[in-house]
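Hey, resending since the last one bounced:
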Amino acid sequence: MGKVVNLNKFRKRKLDEGAAKRADTNRRLHGRTKGERARDELQKKKLESGLDGASMRRQKDRET
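The structure tokens again:
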């Protein structure tokens, strides 16, 4: 005969494990420090300003 299992405890343990996995995922996605967010914003601004100054020539200009 098999071991008796309390289904309520099993269900609650499974929910807790799922919540822990979701929390870990959210920490990785959203859990950045203020300094990290500021650094990323600065890099983004530098990239955009570099792209704003660059221009592409039209095809006619290249041929001549």
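The mean pLDDT is 84.

Sorry for the duplicate.
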